[in-house]
Design brief:
five-stranded parallel sheet; elongated; homodimer
């Protein structure tokens, strides 16, 4: 039970936080004071509950904290500073400045203590579900002495309006993720006005329908906040704490107003508000008593971490933990392929080979596992195994997978049809921003999809992912290239997509990792080539047949396979020029405008696909040897 | 009340439908028999309720029908055939064949009677909400004599698991869309197994939380189906009918099995099933009595349509309806711009000018209207006005907007920050597939966003939309170009995106529509140019300043503004070559790989953005006159 003294301390701590945030936004002359000030009281009590070691921010058994509303970053940075992370008062003063530790929205790997990059709304809620799932899996593998922690997530109206939060919370309820505590900052303010202009549902009933524990509190009442957190930690379900708050609480004239959401309060307003709450008119002012109290997080965390390290020494699972921290990719025994098969099939075998070698390799599909060939055999289902059934929830899958990747000991993959990668795109972007090591299995990669038709045939997707920074898209031409792609991809430490065929593809010779790591290599050479054909995936075979025809007609033609355009783009001119000779033609069943970087001519898709047999479509859209060789003969 | 004779008729009709669908899939040797067979009984009763005129499929006051599970297309095509639409028995036999009227998933504009393209799950539910909203707005403008109809949507587990359905149904409940009837085919089967592997929420409670009317029935009990539809039509809320069904009902050995979802049943299974239900072993068999009964839809629809046309003659709103069918773009009085401003600001004025001239011009933002400048002034809010508050639900916004566009008398726009166009991407793709006339207002278009940082700065998005077929992306350089872009875009009859600056841009000279319609034009020429600079949006100004500097140094430089790359791509070589002279350099604060189609050199973004003042960022990432001119001098 909180006594009056503590309540007084808390009040001072809360107000200190709110003015720190208001000062940061004012100093930056840009940013969001409203949410941090509304959440400050919750943040104070959370500081008494959360388990972190600010001196070793990557401690695997720390609690995870997600600010789903990344625009409340001023509050997160203030807390990191006060808790003892490597964020100084000067860093707070440099909020939103170039190359500061304190960018506008929290960025993973950029600022120690930030567990995941947030900002685009809704994803943080799914990230939190992902952390909670990671924790459950880790606990299953390593035992509860090594893994036993909670996941806290702060979110707002916007997060809960986004469909991804519905998807993720549905899965969290289904799996009874009792380690998950979602604190909903319910301030009724959105940018266009009161939430009631577009939202009137019963949130409590919604979460009850999803099998959550729901607690509603006054988000400025320390006793209620504390009590809710205590109850949440002992619940056997995920808990939603609906915290009724006032945006910009503490601001004399702007509290409760949407004007406080995304703009500085103004010097006068801050001064007036400080005085009203008994503060001096000083910027970035932190009383010693407040600093000491917040520093408790660090002291308690240190003790807990030490105790954990002690207990780990004699834990038989220690070596398992170590091996999950440092996965040995050389221990993977890749399959030997001997026959033609779809790359989605070869990839399924490769996933299973990787899974056998790496206990932290986990993943699943958005209800397409039999089509994506992503089942890890004999591995069981979550939480007792590493197969994840995401349901038909691509976007949540992407954001959950991001959290699995950031958790520290997992290497996750997620899967769907390539055309539906559109549904998880916003989370792929965050993975790319974070350079998270995770993998996307995207099968049914082109018009080769066939009869399902235009709605199911990716056309523009390849171009999109090639234009996404830090992202590597692999499109292997056969089962053997598929292996080499994985050998390279596992070592890239950045998100990688595998774009795989539904249809059978002929087996080509084995390929060395050395060839693959440049993204492109000469698949079949010819003497003093007059023509170079570039292609990826299934079109490599069309290129090879076209080259044969051209060579027979005396037009010396080389074929370059480009399983990873992104890697080719990183090579120096010497290597790039060594690949190309004569008239360069790219052949790919995609929109393909980016090929003009390397090619004189692109034979690609100028429009959407159609519904018919896949082979019929390849001919219909011009990917026949006859059409290709005719075009080339007319061009050279 | 249904009598026994009618029930017997219904049973025969239902079984006829199921075997027709099974035969179609078998003949195609590909497709989805399970859902059509499970939904057949509902489709029979729906045929007695739905108001359509198959001979004039575009009748504005028809009921709308959305097959959200587009994979159940065999059922839709069978119904269209039986109801009397222009879909023949031969068309059914050509299911999933090249250029048939019956592609794998329903395609709007391709098959008469298909109200919207579906397949990617969840979107159909939001489309239905969009049709219901369109109907409410139309009723408000035209009166209930002209507009008074229902919207039916069939959906499955997958649709309801997708977050977009949550978003859309939340909005539908908020607005009490009593004209909306959502029939949920609850068969508990997903591709990975029983729905319970990933989904266990209480659907009834979920929809009650969203203020829906919920009715649960046996989806094979004609009486219950009929009763539910009667109740739904008289409800004052949107209605969810939870119809418990058996997948592939009627199949002797495969009913209830996930094996019946996405593969033909097999000739033997179909034969055995037909015999078990008292049918002859004949393919595509439709008894006359069944055909006559289904043809009632046509007969009743014709009568209703005639009556409606009669009543329209003396309706004072008839001319308004006509003008909404044929919007007169020449009546738009565009603003006269006289000062520098952000293009998001000029665009806001243009939207208001269009709105004044066109009563069917409707739209809104996903809670960013004040930032996107999308408020239509003095126009009121939905349903009494044309301003839509979508809430923080981008994906639902996109799919709702698609339905508004297809409704027939509206020209919709939707808005968010450009980087969050990722969230609605799957619906933009469907708009592009359908070539729907609708507009996307995407502000905060580049690193110009500034302090919000990398999560909020689009980099790869421009490349993506340029690679999307049928889609036109406009990025005006100033307020005047902004007008010309709209003049061209309104006449394209395809979806168009407007990518607009947050920051102020200098006002340039007025531009003719003639210049704009080729996508690119010479903004500033020079004598015998040695260098041509291509740019779009804010970078046009950097190009102009760079050209000035180069010209001063004796390097004759031309500047070409490219507000719409997609249109430029459609021009013939003569026009394209007339634009370029000498060394061609593209300057754009985006990834920009597609510029190599036209340029020798691209000065773009090689990675993600950062958090700092926008002007600082332009310099930091190399978009300074000094850096650009240096690069060019080194290159030529």
């Amino acid at each position: 039970m909180l006594d009056n003294n503590k309540i007084q301390d808390y009040k001072l701590m809360g107000d200190t936080l709110r003015f720190l945030c208001a000062d940061m936004v004012q100093e930056a002359n840009s940013g969001h004071p409203g949410a941090p000030m509304g959440l400050a009281d919750i943040a104070v009590v959370l500081s008494e509950h959360i388990k972190l070691n600010p001196k070793q921010p990557e401690w695997i058994n720390r609690d995870r904290l997600v600010f789903s509303g990344g625009h409340a970053s001023a509050l997160l940075y203030s807390l990191l500073h006060l808790w003892g992370f490597d964020v100084s008062l000067d860093d707070l003063k440099n909020f939103r400045k170039l190359n500061s530790k304190t960018p506008g929205h929290p960025e993973y790997k950029h600022t120690k203590g930030v567990d995941i990059t947030t900002g685009p709304l809704g994803q943080g809620v799914a990230n939190a579900v992902g952390f909670a799932m990671a924790s459950k899996m880790a606990q299953n593998i390593l035992g509860s002495e090594i893994i036993s922690h909670n996941v806290y997530c702060l979110c707002g109206d916007g997060d809960l309006q986004e469909g991804i939060s519905y998807e993720a919370c549905s899965l969290a309820g289904h799996h009874c993720l009792d380690n998950l505590i979602l604190i909903y900052d319910s301030n009724h303010i959105t940018i266009e006005g009161d939430t009631s202009i577009a939202w009137s549902e019963d949130i409590k009933m919604r979460f009850c329908a999803q099998a959550w524990n729901v607690i509603e509190i006054d988000g400025h009442n320390f006793y209620e906040i504390d009590n809710a957190l205590i109850k949440a930690k002992s619940s056997n379900k995920p808990t939603l704490i609906i915290a009724n708050t006032t945006i910009a609480k503490g601001s004399v004239n702007l509290s409760g107003s949407h004007k406080a959401h995304g703009a500085p309060l103004g010097d006068d307003e801050i001064r007036e508000s400080k005085i009203a709450l008994g503060f001096e008119d000083k910027k970035f002012d932190i009383k010693d008593s407040v600093a000491i109290r917040f520093a408790n997080v660090s002291e308690i965390g240190l003790v807990e971490h030490k105790r954990w390290e002690e207990s780990l020494k004699n834990n038989p699972k220690k070596s398992m933990l170590d091996s999950m921290f440092n996965p040995d990719f050389s221990s993977i025994i890749y399959p030997k392929f001997t026959k033609d098969m779809a790359t989605r099939v070869s990839n399924g075998e490769i996933l299973n080979a990787i899974s056998k070698a790496l206990p932290g390799f986990v993943g699943g599909s958005a209800d397409l596992a039999p089509s994506n060939n992503t089942e890890l055999k004999n591995s069981g289902d979550f939480p007792n195994g590493v197969n994840l059934h995401y349901g038909i929830r691509e976007h949540a899958m992407g954001a959950i997978s991001n959290a699995l990747a950031n958790y520290g000991i997992f290497i996750p993959f997620s899967a769907t049809f390539f055309v539906f990668s559109d549904y998880l795109l916003p989370s792929v972007r965050i993975a790319s921003l974070m350079k998270s090591r995770e993998f996307y299995i995207w099968t049914h990669d082109s018009i080769g999809v066939g009869e399902d038709g235009a709605t199911h045939q990716p056309i523009e997707q390849i171009s999109h992912y090639r234009s996404m920074p830090n992202f590597y898209l692999f499109r292997p031409a056969d089962a053997n290239e598929n292996i080499a792609c994985w050998q390279v991809a596992l070592n890239l430490n950045s998100p990688c997509g595998f774009v795989l065929s539904r249809q059978n593809l002929p087996l080509l010779d084995e390929v060395s990792t050395e060839s693959l790591k440049y993204g492109a290599y000469i698949k079949q050479d010819s003497k003093e080539p007059k023509v170079t054909l570039l292609a990826s995936g299934s079109e490599v075979h069309i290129a090879l047949r076209s080259a044969e025809s051209l060579n027979n007609e005396g037009i010396s033609t080389r074929v370059v396979s480009v399983p990873c355009y992104d890697l080719l783009l990183e090579q120096d001119l010497t290597y790039i020029n060594s690949l190309f000779s004569g008239y360069v033609v790219a052949i790919e069943a995609s929109r393909g405008l980016e090929w003009y970087k390397f090619a004189h001519k692109v034979i690609g898709m100028n429009g959407f696909g159609a519904s018919a047999n896949g082979e019929v479509l390849f001919d219909y859209f011009g990917f026949s040897v006859e059409n290709i060789t005719n075009i080339i003969k007319q061009s050279i």
